[in-house]
């Protein structure tokens, strides 16, 4: 079963929004309890004044998907709007609904009759990235598989895009495999300052595919490298990943993400590393990476692709 990607909590989202609002010079935060009073049934999570308009923010832990939750959220907003009008007649006010997901068209259509702003994950990511909040916007609000696909498709191969491709591969690995793997440790060298690895994903899985990989292929840590070559990678790239792997160190399993796959010499070295040293390296080209993202988007398990590529490799020997 595919493990669910860790979701930002409702309280954490509320805290992030509050940090963003404090960076706005023309925003005045308001204590909701002082404004509404203790007897109300419709207390918003946050309140602020901007341009003489009072904003009441309701923070959701996730976007409503089912009909019951959808109508529950809608009814709550309608009742809050009515209560606000009764509490402060003539006040200029606006409702805001914030969520750590992409807003659905169904919800947008239903809210057209209510004076409400939607702060979804794209809006929140943009707001965090544009302010000095000491937060990494894309770490707090990861891009969706569809957005990662679009980033990959527009990114050219070659040295000029090397860093951007490496960063994108880190996001893709995190989306596809974390959890059950731990989030990538980025660009670490060994004690001799040699063998600089792009990503190391610790593997503490106690069940399922990744537990099998640790016990059968010594994937104690999954080493991953990103190579933004315009052409199929040469054998040197495979040898480099092979040098990262050791029984006493990170283990014997690595992944290499590249644009056009391997040339013949690289494939032969990959075979030799397995036959002679039991070092197993799986290579993903652009088509493979797009398939991983498609599997993420459809709630399939991306590790199935890793398993099938290993099976195909072993059966070809």
Short account of what is shown:
The chain is an alpha/beta fold. It is built from 13 helices and 10 strands.
Q: How are the secondary structure elements laid out?
A:
Layout: H1 10-22, E1 27-30, H2 32-36, E2 46-50, E3 53-59, H3 67-87, E4 93-98, H4 105-110, E5 116-119, H5 121-129, H6 137-140, H7 145-154, H8 162-177, E6 185-188, E7 197-202, H9 208-217, E8 221-227, H10 235-244, E9 253-258, H11 264-277, E10 280-284, H12 286-297, H13 303-316
Helix pairs in contact: 7-8, 7-12, 10-11
Descriptive overview:
The protein is of the alpha/beta class and 317 residues long. It is 45% helix and 17% strand. The chain is built from 13 helices and ten strands. It has helices spanning 10-22, 32-36, 67-87, 105-110, 121-129, 137-140, 145-154, 162-177, 208-217, 235-244, 264-277, 286-297, 303-316; strands spanning 27-30, 46-50, 53-59, 93-98, 116-119, 185-188, 197-202, 221-227, 253-258, 280-284. The strands form two sheets. A five-stranded mixed β-sheet has the order 1-2-3-4-5, with helices on both faces. A five-stranded mixed β-sheet has the order 6-7-8-9-10, sandwiched between helices. A hairpin with a 2-residue loop joins β2 and β3. The two termini are 30 Å apart.
The largest sheet, given as strand count, sense and whether it forms a barrel, is: 5 strands, mixed
The N- to C-terminal Cα distance equals 30 Å
Question: Strand order, biggest sheet?
Answer: 1-2-3-4-5
Please give the number of β-strands: 10
- Report the sheet-strand fraction: 15-25%
| DSSP helix fraction | 40-55%
Structural class: alpha/beta
Overall geometric form? elongated
Order of helices and strands: HEHEEHEHEHHHHEEHEHEHEHH
Please count the helical segments: 13
Radius of gyration over C-alpha positions, nearest whole angstrom: 24 Å
Average predicted confidence as pLDDT: 84
Uncertain stretches of 5 or more adjacent residues: 188-195
């Amino acid at each position: 079963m595919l493990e669910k990607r860790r979701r930002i909590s409702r309280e954490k989202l509320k805290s992030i929004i509050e940090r963003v609002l404090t960076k706005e010079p023309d925003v005045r935060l308001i204590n909701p309890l002082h404004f509404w009073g203790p007897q109300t049934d419709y207390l918003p999570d946050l309140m602020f004044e901007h341009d003489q308009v009072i904003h009441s923010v309701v923070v959701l832990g996730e976007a409503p998907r089912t009909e019951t939750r959808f109508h529950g959220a809608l009814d709550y907003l309608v009742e809050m709007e009515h209560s606000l009008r009764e509490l402060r007649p003539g006040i200029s006010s606006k409702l805001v609904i914030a969520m750590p997901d992409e807003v659905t068209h169904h919800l947008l259509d239903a809210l057209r009759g209510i004076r409400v702003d939607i702060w979804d994950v794209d809006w929140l990511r943009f707001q965090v990235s544009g302010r000095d909040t000491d937060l990494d916007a894309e770490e707090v609000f990861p891009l969706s598989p569809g957005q990662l696909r679009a980033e990959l498709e527009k990114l050219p191969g070659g040295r000029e895009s090397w860093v951007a491709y490496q960063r994108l591969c880190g996001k893709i690995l995190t989306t596809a495999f974390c959890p059950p793997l731990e989030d990538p440790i980025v660009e670490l060298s060994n004690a001799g300052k040699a063998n600089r690895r792009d990503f190391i994903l610790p593997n503490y899985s106690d069940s399922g595919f990744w537990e099998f990989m640790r016990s059968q292929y010594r994937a104690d840590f999954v080493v991953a490298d990103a190579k933004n070559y315009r052409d199929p990678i040469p054998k040197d790239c495979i040898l480099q990943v092979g040098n990262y792997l050791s029984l006493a160190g990170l283990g014997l399993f690595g992944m290499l993400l590249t644009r056009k796959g391997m040339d013949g010499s690289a494939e032969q070295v990959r075979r030799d590393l397995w036959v002679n040293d039991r070092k197993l390296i799986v290579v993903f080209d652009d088509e493979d990476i797009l398939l991983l993202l498609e599997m993420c988007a459809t709630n399939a398990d991306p590790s199935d692709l890793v398993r099938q590529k290993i099976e195909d490799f072993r059966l070809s020997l």
